[in-house]
Every structure is written in structure tokens, then in C-alpha cells.
TrEMBL record:
The organism of origin for this protein: Mycolicibacterium pulveris (Mycobacterium pulveris)
Protein name listed in UniProt: YncI copper-binding domain-containing protein
Superkingdom per UniProt: Bacteria
Amino-acid biosynthesis as UniProt keyword: no
Keyword Hydrolase part of the UniProt annotation: no
InterPro entries: TAT_signal, YcnI-copper_dom, YcnI-like_sf
Amino acid sequence: MSSIARASSRALITAAAAASTVLVGGLATAGAASAHVHAEADHPTPGSTATVTFRVPGESDTGALTTELSVELPEVTSVRTEMMPGWTARLDRDVAAGTVRSVTWTAAPGTGISPEQFALFRISVKLPDAESVSFPTTQTYSDGTVVRWDQPPLSDGGEPEYPVPALEFAQPAPAQPTAADTTARWLAGGALAVAAAAVTVALTRRRS
């Protein structure tokens, strides 16, 4: 192989290695960015009852398990938790106000979410009458690490390091007129037309 060919081969190998490093680094960054606690619901609307799902990944760099998850609620009046094997759920109630302030799931001994896993925590809740709702969440690990997911979006629209799980509500469609409403509108329109015709006839007679 000539020296020119060897140099070309070395250049190609170096370029390929550099491209692979950039690709792997990009994938790792994308994976880390998406590994957040998320809140999801199917077509939530203000004031409706919805099933909200919290998707919780294990994120410990030391291999610790997620053993507790606490979600703050906007002092709602109706909450139910889904049965989840290996976990117990506790509602923090304000008895005087008749509301629920938070829900906390605690893993049984030897149970938890590892860094290679995620878990789904679901509640049935009556949503507030607003355009959106946030659920500040605390994730606790078996090694004592506590992570607070409570940061709002950045002023420039970017995502903070620990974004708060939130739902944007779909606005309900405007009510469609019923058959009775349509008939009433036609009758009202007809009455106005008859009245206008009567006024026209009266003016014509007066002029003649």
C-alpha cells in the first residue's frame, strides 16, 4: 500500500471514530434529558375527572433504588390511587377543608425502581378549573438522595434541570345548538321578517 493510501485510510478511520463519539455522546445526552418525571392524561379538560399517570424513571448514578414518591396536589377534593403491587399509597388530607394536599407512595422493603427501570403511578382526580396544573414531585432513593421536580419552564421557553410535571388542559368544545334552539331562532327570525313587512305596508299606505 502506498503512503498516500495509508494516509487516506488513517484519515477515514479518525473521522469515523470522531463521528461515533459525537453520536454516542448525543444519544447519552438525549437519554439523560428525557429521563424526567412526567405527568400524562388523556384529553384532560378543566374541572373534569381524569386518570393522571406519573412516569417515574430510576436515575441514580450509584445504583440506588427509588423507594418513595410524593406528589403535591392543588388541594383537590376527590382523589383515588391505583393498586400497585409492592407499594403503599397514603393521602395527606386537610380534614377541615375537605381537600387532599398530596399523595405519597412508599415501596416495601427490597422493592424499588432501579436505574434500568421506570414505574407508572396513577391517580383518579378531579382537575381544577384552570388552563393547566402542576404537580411538584419529590423522588427519594434508598441511599437517602432526595430529588425535587418542581422547577417551572425557563423564561426563554427552555427546560430546567428538574422540570415540574404538568398538564396543559384541552379547552372543551363550545356547546352545539339543540333542535329546540334552532327552531326558536327560526321563529324569531320569521317574526322579525313579518314585523318588518307590516311596517313597510303601513308606511306605504300612509304615503298613498
